[in-house]
Structure to design on (276 residues):
């Protein structure tokens, strides 16, 4: 259970960090659809990847708790290697365009052709142009899609393992109470992650559909980043509301009630029972 608790805490931490970064650092400083953000862009990329990776880790922890799962990660060292490999290949894909940056002044002039009145920060702050157009712009869009699909496939795989061993391949070695708790836990994980993903996919899809005319609108960009802030906050809230221990803790704070402490009980077994 420590792995699941750690994964939930990790996801909650990165959701809060994402909300803070998007609300106070990134929101006014991104000129979509151009890859011309402020120098805080690397922090934004890392933060988004950390949230997605945390969701994947949550499903992995739930899957690895099933002892009969032949695909479970058994040791902490193996889990560390799995996380490290995901981070390394992600950083390798994202940082590759940094070795072939376009001319910064030329890119600014290119942006001004279709965005003649950008915010004041466009001229006063330092910008980093990752890609103007052509191959590298398409590469960055494709790399983001590949990263999202790869992490999604891993999450779906771990979910399928949980479904198979909890609902299809049942075992008599697991008590009904234990199975009920395991099923309730996987329901909670699926609910909190599904709602979190829908809250970002639906607004993002609507946002992209309004970009078909090619016109620039800074307000739409800011609204999109604000949506991500709300999504991160809702994810943190569902972590507290879906899982019973966290929900009980929140209720105890709101209603000023003391949580019931479970007193240890001793089980006495007679010698005659042991010898039989």
């Amino acid at each position: 259970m420590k792995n699941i608790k750690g994964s939930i805490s990790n996801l909650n931490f990165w959701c809060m960090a994402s909300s803070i970064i998007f609300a106070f650092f990134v929101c006014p400083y991104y000129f979509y659809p151009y890859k011309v953000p402020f120098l805080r862009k690397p922090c934004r990329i890392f933060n988004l990847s950390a949230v997605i990776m945390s969701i994947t880790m949550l499903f992995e922890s739930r899957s690895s708790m099933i002892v009969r799962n032949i695909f479970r990660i058994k040791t902490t060292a193996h889990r560390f290697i799995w996380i490290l490999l995901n981070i390394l290949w992600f950083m390798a894909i994202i940082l590759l365009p940094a070795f072939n940056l376009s001319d910064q002044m030329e890119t600014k002039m290119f942006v001004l052709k279709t965005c003649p009145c950008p915010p004041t920060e466009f001229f006063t702050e330092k910008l980093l142009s990752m890609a103007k157009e052509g191959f590298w712009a398409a590469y960055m869009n494709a790399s983001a899609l590949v990263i999202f699909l790869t992490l999604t496939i891993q999450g779906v795989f771990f979910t399928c393992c949980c479904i198979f061993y909890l609902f299809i391949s049942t075992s008599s070695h697991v008590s009904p109470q234990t199975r009920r708790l395991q099923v309730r836990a996987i329901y909670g994980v699926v609910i909190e992650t599904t709602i979190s993903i829908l809250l970002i996919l639906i607004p993002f899809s609507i946002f992209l559909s309004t970009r078909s005319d090619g016109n620039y609108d800074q307000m739409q960009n800011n609204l999109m980043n604000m949506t991500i802030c709300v999504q991160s906050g809702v994810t943190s809230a569902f972590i507290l509301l879906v899982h019973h221990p966290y929900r009980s803790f929140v209720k105890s704070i709101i209603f000023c009630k003391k949580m019931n402490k479970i007193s240890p009980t001793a089980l006495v077994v007679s010698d005659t029972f042991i010898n039989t």
In short: Residues 2-260 form a domain with the Rhopdopsin 7-helix transmembrane proteins fold (CATH 1.20.1070). The chain is about 70% helix and 0% strand. The mean pLDDT is 70. The longest helix spans residues 135-168.
